[in-house]
Amino acid sequence: MLARAAAKVFQTLVVLIIVSIASFSLLKLAPGDPVVIMLGTEYSQESYDELRAQLGLDRPVAVQYLRWLGDFVTGDWGNSYVAKTDIFSFVVQEALPVTLTLTACAILLAIAVGVPLGVISAVRKDSGWDVGIAALALTGTAFPSFFLGIVLIWFFAVKVGFFPVMGFVPPWEDFWSGMLHLVLPAATLSTFFIGMIVRVTRAAMVEVLAQPYITAAIARGEPRRRVIWVHGFRNILMPLVTVIGLQLGAILQGAVLTETVFSLPGLGQMLTGAVLGREYVLVQAGVMLTATLFILVNLAVDLSYPFLDPRLRAR
Amino acid sequence: MQDHKAILSKHVAARLGRRSVLKGMGAGLFAATTGGALPGFAQVAQSGHMRIGAITPIDTLDPHFTFRLGSVQIISNICNGLLKVVYDGEKVSFEPDLAATWELEDEKTHAFTLHPNVKFHDGTDCDAEAIKFNLMRVKSGTPASPHAWKLAKLEEVEIIDPLTFKLHFSEPYAFLPVALTGSIGRAGTIVSPTAVKKFGDDFGRNPVGTGPFKFVSWQQNDSIELVANTEYFQAGLPKLERVSMMLIDEPSTALAALISGQIDGMNDCPMQLTEQVRKMPNLQIFGGVEGNYTYVGMNTQKAPFDDVNLRRAVAYAIDRDAVLRQAYFGLAKQAYTPISPPMTGFYDPAIAESGRGHSFDLEKAKEFRALAANQDEIEVTYIMTENPPAGTRVAQIVAPMLAQIGIKVKLELLENAAWTQRLQDRDFEMLDFFWTADLDPDETLFPEFKTGGSWNYWGWSNPEFDRLCTEAQVVLDVAERSKLYNQAEDLMIAEAPVAMLAHFPLYKIFSNKVQGFNYVPCDLLNLDTVSLA
């Protein structure tokens, strides 16, 4: 088991290095000179050269990469040349908590809504409930989040006035206000994910319910609720956790749109701004951070299997 | 010879004429306390926290380095200029701001006195030394300010005493009043020398001026916070206690927040939202056609638009009515030449009847097309991007119009940065773009069309045009100067490196709670006189 875990960690490191090279070179290949973008329409050749040298963009690409990787690992992420702030504190202390709070709320909401719906679907397979939930799940998965966000804003914030339209209030500073601000964005972000969880839960549960140990449990006369939530649920945890881990990428992607629509100062909005502004350093830091997050979460998912399923511990 | 101050003040006063102001101009206009008025240190009680959605990009709050009008809007609330733009509902004038008096000693020497006891937000004195520091920072500082050219003719700043100084210029300089304003001109904005030295490169994130509001903080993608300067030198101002500029990328989110009362205003409003805004009883809208122009630009350096007759054919083949209606929602004004409506002494209100400039005339277009060297169907690539104010709409409307004169347009949609790169590299055949001008014909025409000009993307060159514009730079008399610019414009129009399209409007919207806003038709958002009901 330990050897397997070590192998996983090693794989993760290799993937991280590949990601770092990819994110570094992708941006180099993208069109648009960052110096020109920064200087706008009015600039002289001198200010151009000076800025280029200042940013280290006149060095060989390999040097730029190694220098950047070294700095990244040591937490020296440099200064944003647009925002003129320290990127590490900007990204990690300001943007990251916003995105983590938003994604955590969205995932919790998706689980809280999706898992029971999926279980109901499986237990009442082929009933009206099942068909209705499947239709809802499909709609949720297919609905574009930016559009849903705008619809939610117009209805719940403008017409009804229940929730604020935009902005972020840290829940650790003002819990209720923070939660009120998070309701619409979290609902927007979790919609497609709810559909996904419903479908995975249903499929896994249907399979589990057909297993002999379930039949045996029912035959023993155990209460139905206990059969489903203890014997059944325990066995769908693995596919469920796997999906949540894998879908984290999609959630982070959805966060970009959600943060823009609701004007939340998170990683997604920071990244789009940085991409549009050709802020090399900031994009690289943002991509590396989100990729690292994604990869680490999936490593955690991998490592959690033996705890979720005792049968794997023997190997 | 006429008194130069009279000429210059006439010149600056004539800049902007009657403007179509949509609403709210009845609000008590702030009669500027200029010309030796004593500074007031009356401790007025400020109240109210105003939140404004800022939907336009903000690059830096360092006035001498910003490229964005979204930044200038905020800087103008933190800093003062030597002069300021004042609008009385009919015309714009350039009046002393930090300066108490402004005299012309002779054609090339301007004498200023400052208001006494004016302090920067960091407590240091705003005296003649500080002014000199600022002007020299723009003129010859390192790194070089993009606005340095505006003070290129400044030879010396002579300090007489802490409140008196003279500016010596190498020749008469007609553009000066605009350059010295603390807003659009940017070169005359005065910041604290102590703070510049203290913050260095970070000054743009920590601006310190003398203005009605002090800078508090700038949270990226979140908000910029300002608080009232209780020791502001203009008596009784500002009226608000706090201002938050909420940084919002998505205009429809900002509008929803405004309607639901989460914010009190927006610093801009896309044209497509204005109709909806007008239907909202709790919102007020300010705005009108400002100093700018849009056009279809052609690369005169390579085929097929190295052929002047083909360019002329394009210039007359575009149905402006259709463009104005469909691309600008009927809110813009047709542009015959670059000089825009707000530049009153220079703009001819009857230009539509004058026969000058570009307009739609399909017969004329076909005549020019018949003169073109290439009589076959010509295929051109037109690069487009989501630029303000009309995005890709212009390209899509213009393309079928050019098919009528045998030009087959291939539209190529580019991401903004790629598009900008192609523009800078002159790697295009055709595109459309806009120019926002500093309310003076020089900045409107010369850098865009002079031989080798940094914004002359068209590669167009006409020595006579260059000569006329150079001559006009040192002429202070408006009528005489205007004549020179009209001649220069006619040369450009005749050879059509660009086909003129429109002068477009800019808007600000507020909730009805907002009172006392003075609209100035150059995208300013001055909050000193604003209060919340």
From TrEMBL, chain A:
Query: Where, subcellularly, is it found?
Result: Cell membrane
User: Signal peptide span per the entry?
Assistant: none
- Might you report a single GO cellular component term? plasma membrane
Q: Looking at the Swiss-Prot or TrEMBL record, what is one Pfam family this protein matches?
A: BPD_transp_1_N
Q: What is its main location?
A: membrane
> Annotated Gene Ontology MF terms?
dipeptide transmembrane transporter activity
Q: Which residues cross the membrane?
A: 12-30, 98-119, 131-155, 175-198, 236-262, 282-305
Keywords assigned by UniProt, alphabetized: Cell membrane, Membrane, Transmembrane, Transmembrane helix, Transport
Its record classes its membrane topology as: Multi-pass membrane protein
Domain ABC transmembrane type-1 positions: 96-305
Of which family is this protein a member?
Belongs to the binding-protein-dependent transport system permease family.
Q: What is this protein called?
A: ABC transporter permease
Q: Which organism is it from?
A: Cereibacter changlensis JA139
Automatic annotation (TrEMBL), chain B:
Enumerate the PROSITE patterns for this protein: TAT (PS51318)
GO CC field: ATP-binding cassette (ABC) transporter complex; outer membrane-bounded periplasmic space
Q: Which Pfam families match?
A: SBP_bac_5
Residue span, Solute-binding protein family domain: 94-455
The residue ranges crossing the membrane are 21-42
What UniProt keywords are attached to this protein's entry? Membrane, Signal, Transmembrane, Transmembrane helix
User: Which family is annotated?
Assistant: Belongs to the bacterial solute-binding protein 5 family.
Q: What is the protein named?
A: Peptide ABC transporter substrate-binding protein
Organism, by scientific name, is Cereibacter changlensis JA139
